[in-house]
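Supplementary Methods. Inverse-folding protocol.

Structures were first reduced to a discrete structure-token string of length 202. This string, shown here, constituted the complete conditioning input.
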């Protein structure tokens, strides 16, 4: 209601859980996504990377009731451009939405220093670990089915998605893992234990 009352903003959808959020983000491609850390029984930050993947041009602003450096750090690392505390006045939320939409980062000033310190002091992640960690759950499912020898059409039928969507997932996987074709992907997946090596008799 607060956002809809602002003449410069329009709410294009409201989601109550992860699946609804991902579906809406993919179909509506909003300029801004306001994500509550607690979405139903789920942790909104756990699927924030997937949210950004299905809505690549959307900017994400996280809403939380937790005055926690760790939760804000997790949000920024996961791809959010800002965090707003629920205790703040309504006009602060509107201002934060505007700032993030303009490309600025929005963090609670009292926590900004400690959040930035936590991010800059975090241990460096091995590049290969980071690549594997960037895979979404759906992409891991696609990799497992590729390793079984399934074609795109068969994968689509197994996962109840279109063949075009499978192709998009494969393009993303190739890019993230820096492999050039299906054979190289399968070799990579087995060698990094992304899928189980079939045993005799399996």
């Amino acid at each position: 209601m607060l956002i809809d009352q602002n003449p410069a903003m329009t709410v294009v959808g409201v989601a109550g859980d992860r699946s609804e959020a991902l579906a809406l983000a993919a179909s509506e491609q909003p300029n801004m996504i306001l994500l509550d850390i607690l979405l139903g029984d789920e942790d909104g930050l756990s699927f924030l990377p997937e949210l950004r993947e299905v809505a690549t041009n959307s900017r994400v602003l996280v809403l939380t009731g937790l005055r926690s450096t760790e939760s804000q750090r997790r949000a920024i690392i996961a791809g959010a451009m800002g965090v707003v505390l629920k205790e703040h006045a309504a006009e602060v939320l509107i201002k934060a939405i505007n700032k993030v939409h303009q490309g600025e980062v929005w963090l609670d000033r009292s926590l900004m220093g400690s959040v930035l310190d936590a991010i800059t002091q975090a241990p460096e992640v091995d590049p290969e670990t980071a690549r594997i960690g960037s895979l979404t759950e759906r992409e891991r499912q696609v990799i497992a089915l590729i390793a079984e020898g399934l074609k795109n059409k068969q994968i689509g039928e197994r996962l109840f998605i279109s063949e075009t969507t499978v192709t998009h997932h494969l393009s993303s996987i190739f890019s993230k893992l820096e492999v050039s074709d299906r054979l190289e992907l399968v070799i990579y997946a087995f060698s990094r234990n992304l899928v189980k090596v079939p045993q005799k008799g399996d």
